[in-house]
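Note to self: user wants both folds in one dump. Writing first protein now.
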Amino acid sequence: MIQVPHRAAAEQEPSPEKEEKIAIFSRTSFFIVKMSRKHVPPTH
């Protein structure tokens, strides 16, 4: 008998709130990378 914690089960389900957070995070990180690339000269 396997009991799955409610929290773990909820984490696997795609919730709108989580999707929104991921979307905001990826958009923000993309913007930061874009801005840093624009302002900081490449060191490589």
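First done. Writing the second protein, which came from a different request thread.
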Amino acid sequence: MKNQMTLMMSFISVVIWMAVPTHQSPATVVSVLQVSPNQEEIVLATVSGTLQIYDAENETITRTLETSGDYIVDAAWSPDGSRVAAITYSGSISIWISQSEAKLFTVAANNPYDFEPELTAVSWSPDGEILAVSGMNLGTILLDANTGEQLHTLQTGETQDNAWSPSADLATASAAGVFVWRNGALFDMMPSINLTGVPGVIPISVAFSPGGGEIAVEVATFSNPPAGNNSPPVLGTVIEFREYPSFTLVNTVGTPTAGIGLEYSNNGSHVAIASFDNTLRIWDVASLQLVDEIPISSGTRGFDWLDTNTVAVGVDNGRFNITEIEGITSDLTGTITLPSRTQGTAAYAVPLSVKLANSGGALVSEHSPTTDVNGTFTLQDLPQGSYGVWLKHDQSLAVMPSVSLDAPAVSLDFGTLAMGDANNSNHVNISDFSILSAAYGKSQGQSGYDARADFNGDNSVGTVDFSLLGSSYGQSGVPQPGIGGTGAFAAPPPTGTVNVLLRPANARARVGQTFTVTLRVRAGTQTVAGAAAYLTYDPALLQ
């Protein structure tokens, strides 16, 4: 069955069709799923009218509530978890005592029109005393939750959804806009349509954040074509995040298809909506990043939050799954260039150390890929977001380009790596020169050959390796994520000792005088490939 909303704007009729499940849907389709306030039980309804309570941990049926067998379109726990309310498409409203399974009452929605009220949503006031019921042909009515007596009729036209704020304001999403009611009277509203013509919005679903300072509204958006253009209006669906009670727009995020049952997570960090394409979509509220997509029953109210990172989701066998948010992932394909090596050869297939860091520099994940013979590697199932990607080869200086993982597959070129780091310290200095000097002129299989100094991977240490080290000498790589300073690795421990002498040990010098200080290294019988010294001085006194 379909509900039609017709709106007249600038003499153009805009018709929007909202699909809803029909009575001909399979009997096992979950139409509603709601978690109890203490997160220990789940009430689950199907389109055939069954209403059962499950133990959330064991996923077993503990109680079955007697119903008329009509299609149940929504259900809700009372704030204290003692009662369950449910509404049917045809207009009945019932409340049960959840522990005893006894029905407290069933009443019919008083419809001011001559056709079915087509109920859509039910919710409890924060104190558990009032029940709000909405319908496409009803608007919204308020009932005494203890007796079923109708207290107020809030006529706002075709109403898809309603939600209470922590302070007991009631928001309704209708074709005419988002209305806020306080004590049964209109308090404020966010108009649905800009009467000047474009753009226009029709609210579909509404939810308050747990703290009540924000209201999220899913809206169908449309714009009329230019004058003289007979094309239909351009339609879309977005979720608007607005400050409350000012309705100031804070942010928007587009959704692939419309849905209903918009809900914040228990701590307000995420928001989820069940779309008509049978997909539950979850966004991070702060970043508006889509973090997960989960298959869901055809019933669009068939999910609820168990905790901040876990949802209970109805499936089309009349049951439900408990699912942790996994996050939307990307595959990152990286490419490196190794100087003086030939692509397509084994020398290009090398192991790497790769680390992802967030915008604050904190380590997110570590990886140890090996490139193919063209210098390419792939990291799979990375959480989407913006990162710095730290990369190091054992003989290179580390680099850290930025990347935005915002698609299923993302490529990143790390460029040409600076070689010469023989001891894998992330610096190129005298220690690396010493390793190269000791192995210079040697090839694999010869005594004294050291693969650490073979920077071009040709199984020998020679002039090309010396040139590669020389081009990087005195440089340092990017530090590892989460580690300060210029280095990421510790140099190997010393294998011997030498005596270092300063000549002269002390001397007097006049202002403007040029003088020489000699540093002598006495190594005994040890071979010294080179030496380096670092002088700390006051530039105000010495130049």
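Dump finished. Worth passing along: Residues 329-416 form a domain with the Immunoglobulin-like fold (CATH 2.60.40.10).
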